[in-house]
Amino acid sequence: MRKRDILTPVGITLGFIMIMLAILTKSGTGGIASFADIPAIFIVIGGLIASMLITFKMEQLKLTSAIWKEAFHKNDMQLSELIHLFIRLSERARREGILALENELEDVEDPFIKKGILLAVDGIEPEVISDILHAEITALEDRHYKGRMLIEKAAEYAPAWGMIGTLIGLVLMLNTLSDPSTLGPSMAVALLTTLYGTVLANLVFTPMAGKLEAKTEEEVFTKQIIIEGIIGVQSGQNPRILEEKLSAFLPKDSKQRKETEDAAGYVGESVNET
């Protein structure tokens, strides 16, 4: 189940608010209007778009909206809930046989779990199941990397185009030194393009790329637990032993680990049942 990740929009909004407050506090009569310059916006945004068009194929650029949305959502699956699921599957598999797990798949939304359980039900060797699912993880990491690279490149290009705008503004200013009325607009372009590019890179693109990378690591970690759970269920491991094994992935003394142990009736005794 996916939910909105409010931290991303809150962080971006808070950053812009802090910048606006700093401008309003220190600026004179010009206020916010002094920091709005159409030519500077054209240089940074137009140059950024042009660079992205040159760097990537159209098929990759079409994924931009989907990648953007991904940074504003999070996977709501708790690791403790995932471990509970495999404990339940293990109990049913030991009680009714591995084929009975097909009925359990109706309540499972995650396609990765479904695929692994179906492979187990079909009697595929554990090593083969592990290889297939790890191949899925490798493909996932590759897809996420290619998508994240769009944001990372934007983070590189934005400040670079800001510097280009600064050079343009300085050239315009030096060419019109004899006309004092042109110095202000030229200097505004020179400075504001750098400001725009730097803000976009450090408040939007770079943090968003970092969040996407963290989400990929979290998803890969979750899938590693899923693989261990599927192999444990297929091999007929005792549910309590499987709980011990999967709980090892949770941080010690964490809330989720405590919830897992409490839900499974864990009393802190050594597992001696096989």
Tell me roughly what share of residues is in helical segments.
Answer: over 70%
What is CATH's topology name of the domain at 78-263?
Answer: Helix Hairpins
Number of separate strands:
2
End-to-end separation: 34 Å
CATH top level assignment of the domain at 78-263? Mainly Alpha
Largest sheet: 2 strands, antiparallel
- Beta-strand percentage range: under 5%
Indicate the overall shape: elongated
CATH architecture heading of the domain at 78-263 = Orthogonal Bundle
Number of helices: 11
Protein name: Flagellar motor protein MotP
Membrane topology: Multi-pass membrane protein
Family: Belongs to the MotA family.
Region (Disordered): 252-274
